[in-house]
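Recap from last week: sequence in, structure out.
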Amino acid sequence: MKTKVDKIDVMNKLLYENLVQILKSMNKRIHIKLYALVYDKNEILIEKIRVKKTVPNGEVLACTSQDTLQNIMNVYGELKIDPEHAGITYEDIKEYVNKVWYKQDHSKDAIISKKVTNPSSDIEDGQIASIENSFNDNRILYVNQIPFHTKKSDYSIVYIIEMRNIEYETRQIFYTKPEVSFLRMLLDYFFEDFFSCTNSVIKINNDDSITRKYNEDGIQFNRRIVRLFFGKIQNYLQNHTKFDDFNVEFDNELNNEYYVNGFLEKMDYISTLTYENASPFGSILFMNKEVIMQRSIIRFTVKFTKEDRIGLEDAKRIRKLLELTNVDNDLYLIADEKEIYGLGEVNWNMQKGELALRVDFTGLSKYNLVLVQTEAEIVSGGKLFIEDEKKVYRSDLSLVEIQLISVSFKNPRLGEEGYSAEKFMQLLKNMFWENSIEDDQINQKVERLDQIVRKAREQKHGTMVVITDEVTAQQELYQLSKQSTLIEPGIINPEYIKYLTAIDGAIYFDTDGLCHGIGVILDGIAKENIGDASRGARYNSAYRYLHKLKEDEQKKCVIVIISEDGMVNLIPESEHEDMLLALVEEIIDMINEEEPDYNLLKEKEEQLLRSKIVDFDWLFNIAEVYYDNDNYERAIDFFEYGIQQAEKSYILPKYLNILGLIHHSRENYHESTRMFKLAVGASDNDQSRDIYMGNVGHSYFLLALQLKNNDEKSKNLNKGIEWFSKAIGLTKSGSFKPSVRNHNLKGRCYFTLSVLEKDPTKKNQLLKNALEDFSQAITMDPKDKIYYWNRYVVYNQLSRKKECIEDLIQAEYLKHDDKYINNLSNLLKENHDLITESIEFYNKLAFQKEGPPQLVKLIDEFQVKLEISKQVEAAAGKAPDMDESKK
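Predicted structure tokens:
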């Protein structure tokens, strides 16, 4: 990538790779794309660069590529940003992303969501849009800048980060309550406190590295930030911060006070302790001490005296007391930022704006920090009462619990380890009700199934929940009856789910939430491309079963896999929720199936191609797989989609070469020649250029064979020779071996020209040139019969019969072909004087191994004829000619 700014590509690469490591270590499903806008010291935008990850087909390691874009509209177009309101300066873009973009519905008609409670209000008013539409297509956009120094000048790089596959709760907090958003704090500190600055600018070292401020890797940085985040939360508790005190401050300033607080260390110590060999489970609710002392808010079941309150550093006593808590029954240990006050519950209707945070311990060294607040359900819960001749309107309060961050063995985690209600519900709707008009009945079914899965997650030994339509459930369980416990279909109390999943096997539901069977052992067909050897039997059996259903009358199925370590996998992964790259991989897997579902494949392809931000490299990956599966028509389609999407971006020469090969196979040699030449121009590797140049020459050769005009034929044959000569010339450096194909095809060009040539002298020279290249091909690869046949054809034109016979014997010896044996037989019949030498030539070849039966038979026949001839001559009294027999 050529840029106007020295080392900007190094800066982009290092920032991108560190950021990817940091984010993916918290949630491997997060997909990141980075855009760098480079401004000079006069604040003029001089560079627009897209930094992306590309995973070439067949390679394991990801690679980072950078494309220079034409203008900022390319950036806005890919990100679905409204260019009229986003502006061009850092301040304008940041303001737009923080306060406008998140409210928009990023569909084709990008408009402010109709479901926003107060569409005209600003974010400061606290009016939050509904869950369904306010935080769109699982993306977060974030903007920050870095001062960058080179030897020539100083620059400002504005980075726009797109993060995909972010769950609803994380998105909601990120924009509406950024003060308690761990992700926003992490990103702010990454730009402010990860790289070391010299004189307030970042510099590239001589070894193309950037000095890290604290010499941290991504994991160490995440651990530091989660410690600071808990320190920030401790400050909020100490200072009696309320929800109303949050003024939607989007930027986190560095605060050394957070380092002093030890809130995280205390929680972490508690999480490492067992009680009677049991891992820690339970909850501590944290509020400000003034709030706790108000009797109207906390109802204590057990309240310690002031002198006997338990400090948070007394981890062993707290671990024991956790056994008394029950989050389902709203019973917690009540604490401020220093000590435990007792065991109690909360009058949530009295919370109002008071800050409440809960730490849920979920196993050994695992715990979650949860923000708890109430919201009025005005639409669904309101009722009018008359009391003492007064009209009173009462509404239900909804307890909203938002997980701010999970910590697992000291490492922060974003999301519920592969599962969220939002993702699961969307998957169900896409799978079973995609073309249905959404109504309350469907929502009730989906919510019921989500509740079932959440209860199944309480099964500590792992389990599976299978969901199909009613007909499929009945058919499948009839077939699986010998390896299942069938029950009368009915609603199961969610509280019993964890007991019903205690036995081996899956629990089987239909889409109405009716349970059809427990302990179901799933079967499926084992295939080499299905499953994951690194995962357990439960995961792989689920995948095999899912693929079996797909092959059997296109049955639809969703399986929730709950592992013993708490990890949750949904299969199939949601088409709309997952990264586009995951969708590409799914399409590739389907193409490689023996009997793919072409209707479903077409649907997924259309979904991918509808996206405005699909990466052209991913389209090329799909095209390459289609090429490998000999589906040239679809391969060309995806290459054309990719080239259209790429615009003026650099395209890898291997893709241009593959497209050329496809046109070549379809005998469209004009187009294949053009593509091969583009591949030559795009490649900086001599060994690759040797291949591409040879392909150019081959296309010219075959194009000549198509033409009827001899002058045009000769012209293209000479072009072919020119390109083959260029390719062969690249090998003179000795860094790699020359291509035998190039010599063979070059020889064919010379021979074809000789056929067109009328001048005997020129014809003879062309034949000698052809002979030289065919001989060189044989020297390089003496085991290929084609080269001997080609040389035989030239020898035949030169009337060199002995060499003709030897090349035919050699070709037939390597592998039988009727044309070899027939031509050989005719030559021996016409040239009796060469029979003896021909037999001797064969015997040398067959010293260790006989040739094909046809060749052995032919040689034997001529051997017999030769012996008979000798006997006849001897009977006639004529001595054999010794010299003649040695010819």
